[in-house]
Design brief:
Elements (H helix, E strand, L loop, with lengths): L19 H11 L5 H7 L4 H5 L8 H12 L3 H4 L22 H6 L14 E2 L4 E2 L41 H6 L16 H4 L2 H20 L15 H16 L3 H8 L3 H4 L29 H14 L10
Antiparallel strand pairs: 1-2
The chain binds zinc ion (ZN) (2 copies).
The site of one zinc ion has 8 residues, from loops.
Length: 319
Protein backbone atom coordinates (compact mmCIF):
# COMPACT_ATOMS: atom_id res chain seq x y z
CA UNK A 1 0.00 0.00 0.00
CA UNK A 2 1.27 3.43 -0.81
CA UNK A 3 2.05 5.71 2.11
CA UNK A 4 0.20 8.99 2.03
CA UNK A 5 2.63 11.65 3.16
CA UNK A 6 1.63 14.50 5.41
CA UNK A 7 3.54 17.39 6.97
CA UNK A 8 5.77 16.54 9.92
CA UNK A 9 4.73 18.10 13.27
CA UNK A 10 7.83 20.32 13.54
CA UNK A 11 9.00 22.23 10.52
CA UNK A 12 12.01 24.43 11.23
CA UNK A 13 12.44 27.57 9.17
CA UNK A 14 14.73 27.28 6.18
CA UNK A 15 17.60 29.76 5.98
CA UNK A 16 18.03 31.33 2.58
CA UNK A 17 21.68 30.24 2.24
CA UNK A 18 21.18 26.76 3.69
CA UNK A 19 22.19 23.50 1.99
CA UNK A 20 19.66 20.77 1.37
CA UNK A 21 21.59 18.26 3.52
CA UNK A 22 21.63 20.74 6.41
CA UNK A 23 17.88 21.37 6.21
CA UNK A 24 17.06 17.65 6.08
CA UNK A 25 19.36 17.12 9.07
CA UNK A 26 17.58 19.80 11.12
CA UNK A 27 14.16 18.51 10.07
CA UNK A 28 15.13 14.99 11.19
CA UNK A 29 16.45 16.22 14.57
CA UNK A 30 13.40 18.43 15.19
CA UNK A 31 11.10 15.47 14.61
CA UNK A 32 13.19 12.99 16.65
CA UNK A 33 14.07 10.73 13.75
CA UNK A 34 16.51 8.02 14.82
CA UNK A 35 18.79 8.79 11.85
CA UNK A 36 18.72 11.17 8.91
CA UNK A 37 18.58 8.08 6.67
CA UNK A 38 15.04 7.30 7.91
CA UNK A 39 13.94 10.75 6.79
CA UNK A 40 15.71 10.30 3.45
CA UNK A 41 13.75 7.07 2.96
CA UNK A 42 10.46 8.66 3.90
CA UNK A 43 11.12 11.49 1.44
CA UNK A 44 12.16 8.96 -1.22
CA UNK A 45 15.63 10.47 -1.42
CA UNK A 46 19.06 8.90 -1.55
CA UNK A 47 22.40 10.35 -0.52
CA UNK A 48 23.29 10.93 -4.14
CA UNK A 49 20.12 12.83 -4.85
CA UNK A 50 20.58 14.99 -1.76
CA UNK A 51 24.24 15.76 -2.24
CA UNK A 52 24.60 15.97 -5.98
CA UNK A 53 21.90 15.02 -8.43
CA UNK A 54 18.87 16.84 -7.10
CA UNK A 55 21.19 19.66 -6.31
CA UNK A 56 20.77 20.36 -9.98
CA UNK A 57 17.64 22.18 -10.85
CA UNK A 58 16.50 19.98 -13.74
CA UNK A 59 15.76 17.07 -11.42
CA UNK A 60 14.28 19.17 -8.69
CA UNK A 61 10.57 18.95 -9.34
CA UNK A 62 10.12 15.22 -9.23
CA UNK A 63 12.76 14.37 -6.61
CA UNK A 64 11.91 16.87 -3.92
CA UNK A 65 8.12 16.83 -4.04
CA UNK A 66 7.74 14.42 -1.06
CA UNK A 67 10.10 16.63 0.99
CA UNK A 68 7.96 19.66 0.17
CA UNK A 69 4.99 17.87 1.73
CA UNK A 70 6.92 16.64 4.79
CA UNK A 71 8.53 20.00 5.49
CA UNK A 72 5.53 22.15 4.58
CA UNK A 73 7.83 24.17 2.33
CA UNK A 74 6.94 25.22 -1.18
CA UNK A 75 8.94 24.19 -4.22
CA UNK A 76 10.11 27.79 -4.50
CA UNK A 77 11.39 27.76 -0.92
CA UNK A 78 13.21 24.45 -1.26
CA UNK A 79 14.64 25.45 -4.61
CA UNK A 80 16.92 27.89 -2.77
CA UNK A 81 18.88 24.85 -1.51
CA UNK A 82 19.55 23.70 -5.06
CA UNK A 83 22.62 24.59 -7.08
CA UNK A 84 21.98 25.85 -10.55
CA UNK A 85 23.48 24.15 -13.57
CA UNK A 86 26.53 26.39 -13.46
CA UNK A 87 27.88 24.21 -10.65
CA UNK A 88 28.96 20.86 -12.16
CA UNK A 89 28.23 17.77 -10.09
CA UNK A 90 31.92 16.91 -9.76
CA UNK A 91 32.59 19.97 -7.59
CA UNK A 92 29.98 18.81 -5.08
CA UNK A 93 30.84 16.35 -2.29
CA UNK A 94 28.99 13.17 -1.34
CA UNK A 95 28.34 12.88 2.43
CA UNK A 96 31.20 15.18 3.43
CA UNK A 97 30.66 18.77 4.42
CA UNK A 98 32.65 21.77 5.62
CA UNK A 99 32.11 24.32 8.34
CA UNK A 100 33.21 27.84 9.22
CA UNK A 101 33.49 27.61 13.03
CA UNK A 102 32.76 31.34 13.43
CA UNK A 103 29.63 31.31 11.25
CA UNK A 104 28.62 28.15 13.10
CA UNK A 105 28.99 29.91 16.46
CA UNK A 106 26.58 32.60 15.16
CA UNK A 107 24.09 30.10 13.85
CA UNK A 108 24.81 26.39 13.46
CA UNK A 109 23.49 25.22 10.10
CA UNK A 110 25.23 24.22 6.85
CA UNK A 111 25.65 26.97 4.26
CA UNK A 112 25.16 25.89 0.67
CA UNK A 113 28.33 27.64 -0.51
CA UNK A 114 30.54 25.70 1.91
CA UNK A 115 29.84 22.43 0.12
CA UNK A 116 31.24 23.55 -3.22
CA UNK A 117 34.64 21.85 -3.26
CA UNK A 118 36.35 24.77 -4.99
CA UNK A 119 35.13 27.08 -2.24
CA UNK A 120 37.84 26.63 0.36
CA UNK A 121 37.34 29.65 2.61
CA UNK A 122 34.68 31.64 4.45
CA UNK A 123 34.67 35.08 2.80
CA UNK A 124 32.93 36.59 5.85
CA UNK A 125 35.57 35.57 8.38
CA UNK A 126 38.46 35.12 5.92
CA UNK A 127 39.46 31.75 7.27
CA UNK A 128 39.87 28.27 5.81
CA UNK A 129 36.78 26.11 6.08
CA UNK A 130 37.06 23.12 8.40
CA UNK A 131 36.58 19.68 6.80
CA UNK A 132 37.65 17.46 9.70
CA UNK A 133 37.36 17.34 13.46
CA UNK A 134 40.49 18.86 15.05
CA UNK A 135 40.18 16.39 17.93
CA UNK A 136 39.61 12.95 16.34
CA UNK A 137 40.60 13.98 12.75
CA UNK A 138 37.52 12.34 11.24
CA UNK A 139 36.08 14.09 8.16
CA UNK A 140 32.97 16.09 8.94
CA UNK A 141 29.87 14.47 7.49
CA UNK A 142 26.11 14.77 7.98
CA UNK A 143 26.17 11.55 10.01
CA UNK A 144 26.90 13.08 13.38
CA UNK A 145 25.08 13.11 16.70
CA UNK A 146 24.28 16.79 16.85
CA UNK A 147 24.57 19.75 14.52
CA UNK A 148 27.48 21.43 16.27
CA UNK A 149 29.29 18.40 17.71
CA UNK A 150 31.48 15.69 16.27
CA UNK A 151 30.86 12.04 17.17
CA UNK A 152 33.80 12.34 19.59
CA UNK A 153 32.03 15.19 21.41
CA UNK A 154 34.17 18.05 20.11
CA UNK A 155 32.20 21.27 19.62
CA UNK A 156 32.94 22.59 16.11
CA UNK A 157 32.38 26.21 17.26
CA UNK A 158 35.57 25.88 19.34
CA UNK A 159 37.72 25.00 16.34
CA UNK A 160 40.33 27.48 15.17
CA UNK A 161 41.04 27.49 11.44
CA UNK A 162 43.90 29.35 9.70
CA UNK A 163 43.08 32.86 8.57
CA UNK A 164 43.75 33.79 4.96
CA UNK A 165 44.59 37.11 3.34
CA UNK A 166 42.18 38.81 0.96
CA UNK A 167 44.06 37.58 -2.08
CA UNK A 168 43.45 33.99 -1.00
CA UNK A 169 39.68 34.44 -1.15
CA UNK A 170 39.85 35.09 -4.88
CA UNK A 171 38.60 31.77 -6.31
CA UNK A 172 35.90 31.37 -3.69
CA UNK A 173 34.62 34.83 -4.53
CA UNK A 174 34.43 33.89 -8.22
CA UNK A 175 32.78 30.52 -7.59
CA UNK A 176 30.19 31.83 -5.11
CA UNK A 177 28.86 34.35 -7.58
CA UNK A 178 26.86 36.26 -5.00
CA UNK A 179 30.12 37.69 -3.68
CA UNK A 180 30.51 39.74 -6.77
CA UNK A 181 34.10 39.90 -8.09
CA UNK A 182 33.82 43.67 -8.45
CA UNK A 183 34.13 43.81 -4.67
CA UNK A 184 37.77 43.36 -5.38
CA UNK A 185 39.31 46.43 -6.82
CA UNK A 186 42.47 44.74 -7.95
CA UNK A 187 41.51 42.02 -10.35
CA UNK A 188 44.44 39.74 -9.88
CA UNK A 189 43.48 37.11 -12.39
CA UNK A 190 43.10 37.41 -16.19
CA UNK A 191 39.84 38.97 -17.42
CA UNK A 192 38.49 35.51 -18.36
CA UNK A 193 37.76 34.85 -14.67
CA UNK A 194 35.56 37.91 -14.39
CA UNK A 195 33.72 37.79 -17.70
CA UNK A 196 33.12 34.13 -18.63
CA UNK A 197 30.24 31.99 -17.43
CA UNK A 198 30.69 30.14 -14.15
CA UNK A 199 30.50 26.60 -15.57
CA UNK A 200 33.23 27.43 -18.14
CA UNK A 201 35.40 28.93 -15.38
CA UNK A 202 34.88 25.94 -13.07
CA UNK A 203 35.74 23.44 -15.85
CA UNK A 204 38.89 25.40 -16.59
CA UNK A 205 39.98 25.61 -12.94
CA UNK A 206 39.38 21.85 -12.59
CA UNK A 207 41.50 21.20 -15.68
CA UNK A 208 44.34 23.40 -14.37
CA UNK A 209 44.27 21.77 -10.92
CA UNK A 210 44.36 18.37 -12.64
CA UNK A 211 47.43 19.34 -14.66
CA UNK A 212 49.03 20.76 -11.54
CA UNK A 213 48.43 17.51 -9.68
CA UNK A 214 49.55 15.30 -12.59
CA UNK A 215 52.59 17.46 -12.92
CA UNK A 216 53.45 17.45 -9.20
CA UNK A 217 52.68 13.83 -8.37
CA UNK A 218 53.00 12.11 -11.74
CA UNK A 219 51.67 8.62 -12.16
CA UNK A 220 51.16 8.16 -8.43
CA UNK A 221 48.08 10.27 -8.77
CA UNK A 222 45.30 9.65 -11.21
CA UNK A 223 43.26 12.71 -11.99
CA UNK A 224 39.66 12.19 -12.99
CA UNK A 225 36.03 12.95 -12.44
CA UNK A 226 35.79 12.09 -8.75
CA UNK A 227 39.30 13.22 -7.79
CA UNK A 228 38.44 16.51 -6.17
CA UNK A 229 36.16 14.71 -3.71
CA UNK A 230 39.13 12.81 -2.31
CA UNK A 231 41.29 15.89 -1.64
CA UNK A 232 41.30 17.73 1.69
CA UNK A 233 40.10 21.32 1.73
CA UNK A 234 43.47 22.74 2.80
CA UNK A 235 45.20 20.91 -0.08
CA UNK A 236 42.66 22.16 -2.64
CA UNK A 237 43.30 25.63 -1.25
CA UNK A 238 47.08 25.23 -1.68
CA UNK A 239 46.63 24.08 -5.29
CA UNK A 240 44.37 27.05 -6.00
CA UNK A 241 46.89 29.49 -4.57
CA UNK A 242 49.69 27.94 -6.63
CA UNK A 243 47.51 28.31 -9.74
CA UNK A 244 46.79 31.90 -8.79
CA UNK A 245 50.54 32.62 -8.81
CA UNK A 246 50.93 31.02 -12.24
CA UNK A 247 47.95 32.89 -13.69
CA UNK A 248 48.98 36.22 -12.21
CA UNK A 249 52.26 36.18 -14.09
CA UNK A 250 50.86 35.74 -17.58
CA UNK A 251 52.13 35.04 -20.19
CA UNK A 252 55.42 33.85 -18.70
CA UNK A 253 53.81 31.99 -15.81
CA UNK A 254 51.86 29.65 -18.10
CA UNK A 255 54.80 29.28 -20.47
CA UNK A 256 57.22 28.31 -17.69
CA UNK A 257 54.65 26.07 -16.09
CA UNK A 258 53.79 24.08 -19.23
CA UNK A 259 57.50 23.85 -20.18
CA UNK A 260 58.23 22.27 -16.83
CA UNK A 261 55.61 19.54 -17.26
CA UNK A 262 57.29 16.18 -17.68
CA UNK A 263 54.98 14.26 -20.02
CA UNK A 264 56.58 10.96 -19.05
CA UNK A 265 55.04 11.37 -15.62
CA UNK A 266 51.61 11.38 -17.24
CA UNK A 267 52.05 7.95 -18.74
CA UNK A 268 51.55 4.92 -16.58
CA UNK A 269 51.92 1.74 -18.61
CA UNK A 270 49.79 -0.19 -16.13
CA UNK A 271 46.90 2.17 -16.50
CA UNK A 272 47.23 3.45 -20.03
CA UNK A 273 43.48 3.09 -20.58
CA UNK A 274 42.91 5.67 -17.83
CA UNK A 275 45.21 8.12 -19.51
CA UNK A 276 42.46 10.32 -20.93
CA UNK A 277 41.19 11.08 -17.41
CA UNK A 278 44.31 13.13 -16.95
CA UNK A 279 42.74 15.94 -18.95
CA UNK A 280 39.37 15.87 -17.25
CA UNK A 281 36.98 17.57 -17.92
CA UNK A 282 38.25 18.06 -21.48
CA UNK A 283 38.54 15.50 -24.22
CA UNK A 284 42.04 14.20 -24.85
CA UNK A 285 41.74 15.06 -28.57
CA UNK A 286 42.51 18.72 -27.76
CA UNK A 287 46.01 17.80 -26.70
CA UNK A 288 47.11 15.28 -29.32
CA UNK A 289 49.40 16.42 -32.15
CA UNK A 290 49.43 15.19 -35.77
CA UNK A 291 51.79 12.39 -34.77
CA UNK A 292 49.17 11.09 -32.36
CA UNK A 293 51.14 12.10 -29.25
CA UNK A 294 50.21 14.35 -26.34
CA UNK A 295 51.89 17.66 -27.04
CA UNK A 296 52.89 20.19 -24.38
CA UNK A 297 52.46 22.97 -26.94
CA UNK A 298 48.86 21.91 -27.41
CA UNK A 299 48.28 22.16 -23.66
CA UNK A 300 49.74 25.65 -23.66
CA UNK A 301 47.77 26.68 -26.77
CA UNK A 302 44.59 25.33 -25.22
CA UNK A 303 45.10 27.37 -22.03
CA UNK A 304 45.64 30.61 -23.98
CA UNK A 305 42.71 29.94 -26.27
CA UNK A 306 40.50 29.48 -23.24
CA UNK A 307 41.78 32.58 -21.46
CA UNK A 308 41.40 34.75 -24.56
CA UNK A 309 38.17 33.42 -26.05
CA UNK A 310 36.31 32.44 -22.86
CA UNK A 311 32.67 31.70 -23.62
CA UNK A 312 33.31 31.92 -27.38
CA UNK A 313 35.49 28.81 -27.18
CA UNK A 314 33.53 25.70 -26.37
CA UNK A 315 35.91 22.77 -26.07
CA UNK A 316 34.70 19.19 -26.26
CA UNK A 317 34.41 17.85 -22.74
CA UNK A 318 35.04 14.34 -21.49
CA UNK A 319 31.96 12.16 -21.59
ZN1 LIG B 1 32.49 32.37 8.56
ZN1 LIG C 1 35.86 14.39 16.53
Amino acid sequence: MMNILSALPRRPRLFNDESLASYIYRLAIANSFETTISLYRLANLTENTVFTRTNHSQNFNKSLRPLCILSGKSETQLSSTIYNDDIPEYVLPIRKTKICPKCFADNPYGRKDWDILLNTICPVHQCLLLDHCPECKILISWYRKSMDKCRCGFNFCRAITPTVNKEETIFSVIVCDKYHPSLFQNQLLPGFFYTSSLSIIIDFIIFLIGQHINHSFGNKNLWGKGSLRGIRNSIIHTHLMELCDILKSLPHGIWEWTCSINMNLYYDKQRISDFHYRFFPYDISHFINDKGKIDINNIERFIYKMLIEGDRFSPITYT
